[in-house]
User: Fold this.
Amino acid sequence: MKNKFYITTPIYYANAKPHIGHAYTTIAADVLARFHKIQGDEVFFLTGMDEHGIKIQRAAETQGKKPQKFVDEIAGEFQSLWKKLDIKYDNFIRTTDKKHKEAVQKVLQTLYDKGAIYKGKYEGLYCVGCEQFKNENELVDGKCPDHDTTPEIIQEECYLMKMTSIQENLIKKIESDEFKIAPEKYKNEILSFLKTQVLKDVSISRKNLSWGILLPFNEEHTTYVWIDALLNYLTGIGWDGDLKNIPDQWPVNVNLIGKDILRVHATIWPAILMHLGIQLPEMLFTHGHILSGSKKMSKTLGNVISIDEMLEKFGADGTRYLLLASGPFGQDIDITMERMVEKYNADLANGLGNLTSRVIKLAQNCELRIADFESISNDEFSNIVNKLELSSALEYIWNIIKEDNKFIEDNKPWELQKNNQEKFQKVMQELISNLYLISELLIPFMPDTSEKIKIALETKKTEILFQRIK
Ligand code: MSP
Assistant:
């Protein structure tokens, strides 16, 4: 029987165009989905849009647009970027989809009937950027550190979801890795948070906000956007909200997220599932943030690196490579355009591009063909990818590239061709089979380049894979 592999990205807020951070997560998820497909797994890769809430309603108002029209346009921009980046998802969920909304209402009714939700009041400081209530101790100089804005004071009647009743059980599930939070440092961070404070019950509805899903048991309220959004991981595989109909793809194997949304995913998300009696995701994998010149990207600082500019300069595969190779997946990575151009020239134009064209030109003078090589499985490489050490996986491939370029320098096959045919064939056998291996290992990371190398190996014709950039 085939293994299943269900991977998700966060669903992105439809309040503005996609940026490099969204691309980073989505490329990583695409790489993992493609990798598992090659292993023969039954893969489901879900991404999509988070389209309700005050942040989006306000963004639409600012542009004088109806919220639905506004989110339709933004969703289109995301989809077109994913196409340009060669992202192959299985579903693009939008929280304004009718089916999603109906399922969310069903879930809320179930939670209400079970007594997990009750009517109360909430008073607190709300950061619209995060779409979350904040504790005083999370603020810096009274402002949200992620958005640099002063939260709004909200005091209203609402419905709340019980959190204390699940807390002990949640700690156990995280400690035992039944609900695995990776990398380890994030697991520790969440455990120490959960062990030092009693979780406050979470407000799951808003009274004065129209852009949201109506609560089925009180239509004066709309659903809190995070509850609505988290359920996408279930509705995105076709769940209708009925506990008897949990789809076969469940549970999620990897919920891929950025560190900015770890807390919600490690508390509210499992709480909903535990109240419902649904199995938790196998793993919540948290990656770091992309920084530009050691700072958070911001328009004010003028250090924003645009994903469109990257695509224009480096192409889809170049962009995929540079984002994932710039630093360990799981840690913050720091990029600058200057360093990426350097890396592009060194690793892609010189390293891989050069190797391919040298090997193919030399191959024109020997008998070996790609058909002489079998599909290769490589356990060492697979272990690295399975641990989501994506930059190490690329380093593994680039070590082969470097060694091969050196092997060519050392053996000078163009001389062997003239005076030692036997050794020439041997050297070429090694080079061609290594280039074939490289093309196989590259499939999930740089699908188009991998295909081009394979065609070059078959036809023995070379084209320039990566043009040097000045
Ligand atoms: N809508 C929520 C998520 C709901 S999931 C049920 C949200 N959306 S978001 O548009 O703000 O996207 C956040 C995600 O984008 C992060 O978790 C991360 O995956 C990615 N990134 C946003 N900025 C980033 C960087 N600067 N660097 C890397 N990734 C970051 O939060």
The longest helix spans residues 337-363. The chain has a mean pLDDT of 95. DSSP finds 17 helices and 16 strands in the chain.
